[in-house]
UniProtKB/TrEMBL annotation:
GO biological process assignments: cobalamin biosynthetic process
EC main group: transferase
Enzyme Commission identifier(s): 2.5.1.17
Keyword Ribonucleoprotein: no
Any one GO molecular-function label of the UniProt entry: ATP binding
UniProt-listed Pfam families: CobA_CobO_BtuR
Descriptive protein name: Cob(I)yrinic acid a,c-diamide adenosyltransferase
Keyword line: Transferase
Region (Disordered): 1-20
Length: 200
């Protein structure tokens, strides 16, 4: 895509404007750092356009105070840009489950997905971040057929960005834009834990 121009233009009957403004299903996956960070950067762009933004976090604890949440909440309440809704659907990193908590996490994921389906049907927002959404899919907590069908059939001009490792092949195939974040080096390889201002 030299200078942001497409390599080829399909014969789909759409005008350049219609094709340019087509809503996108976006997936950020892979083992590298930056999937959520990139999605929140896109959310900032959406907010700046005045679009209603919704963030659904699926495996991050409601107790965590992360920088992106604070920044987007403040911006959403500023009266400039678009409004921002933020939803936390989990109780913490689900691969660190407490015994007996698996059903609670699965129920939270199903409840979160049901809310997303309602909001997509009502065209409540124009930009959605489904953060760490690949994990409930990977663990079988959500029906992949239902997810793909809902996302590809969503009405209006709603953009959806999904983050998380190991995105299912069918989701990748259905998406319009897929970025795989690869890891070359990470401080954790040298025994360094995540730090304030970098990870949160």
């Amino acid at each position: 895509m030299p200078q942001g121009k497409p390599v080829s233009v399909p014969d789909d009957g759409l005008t350049t404007r219609q094709r340019r403004n087509r809503p996108l299903l976006i997936v950020h996956t892979g083992p590298g750092k930056g999937k959520s960070t990139a999605a929140f950067g896109m959310a900032l762009r959406a907010w700046n356009q005045g679009w209603p933004v919704a963030v659904f976090q699926f495996v991050k604890s409601a107790k965590w105070r992360i920088g992106e949440e604070r920044a987007l909440r403040v911006l959403g309440e500023s009266g400039e840009g678009g409004p921002v809704a933020w939803h936390k659907m989990g109780e913490g990193w689900s691969w660190l489950r407490r015994p007996g908590a698996e059903d609670d996490h699965a129920a939270n994921a199903r409840e979160g997905w049901a809310q997303i389906k309602r909001e997509l049907a009502a065209e409540t927002h124009r930009f959605y971040v489904l953060d760490e959404f690949t994990y409930p899919l990977k663990w079988g907590w959500l029906d992949l057929d239902d997810v793909v069908e809902t996302l590809t059939g969503r009405p209006g001009d709603q953009h959806v960005v999904i983050t998380g490792r190991d995105a299912p092949g069918r989701l990748v195939e259905a998406a319009d834009l897929v970025t795989e974040m690869g890891k070359v080096k990470h401080p954790m390889d040298a025994g360094q834990k995540g730090q304030r201002g970098i990870e949160w």
